[in-house]
Design brief:
The protein has one domain: Alpha-Beta Complex (Aldehyde Oxidoreductase, domain 3), CATH 3.90.1170.40. By secondary structure, it is an alpha+beta fold. Strands 3, 4, 6, 8 and 9 form a 5-stranded antiparallel sheet that branches. Strands 1-5-7-2 form a 4-stranded mixed sheet.
Length: 144
């Protein structure tokens, strides 16, 4: 079963991953994206205190669905689950879980990597990094 969600709840990676496992698949690849303490900006390493994620929720969910559909068209995969957390996240807390089930691991790995890149590039979810001496909104990744 495919799913895509936004939540303010703490994410349990294993719970999300197990939701995409059908009996015909032999592999599930899961990405656990979490808040890291140090970020490199303009050649300097900056210490992050916490993150805040905001989203244009209606549009984000539509775009997430498009990604699920495209991944299933372009890769030999069975199921996709994407859950992104919004709100304040402490260092080490999970911000996004993407889980992909496929008959073979190669397809699951390729789809999972494509999904995170496209999610950051196209889905209207914004990340604010808060530092001891300020804050900055982080831009998404450019297309690879």
């Amino acid at each position: 079963m495919d799913f895509y969600e936004l939540t303010t709840d703490v994410l349990e990676v294993g719970s999300v991953a197990r939701r995409v496992v059908p009996p015909e698949c032999g592999a599930t690849v899961t990405l656990d994206g979490y808040a890291r303490r140090f970020t490199k900006k303009d050649g300097k390493v900056i210490e992050t205190e916490y993150l805040v994620y905001e989203a244009y929720e209606e549009m984000a969910l539509k775009e997430m669905w498009k990604l699920v559909e495209k991944a299933k068209t372009d890769f030999a995969i069975s199921n996709v689950g994407i859950v992104h957390r919004i709100g304040r996240l402490e260092i080490g807390e999970t911000s996004v879980v993407i889980s992909v089930a496929a008959a073979h691991r190669r397809d699951a790995f390729a789809a999972c990597e494509w999904l995170i890149k496209e999610l950051k590039r196209t889905v209207p979810i914004w990340k604010k990094e808060v530092y001891a001496d300020g804050e900055a909104w982080s831009e998404g990744e450019a297309a690879a």
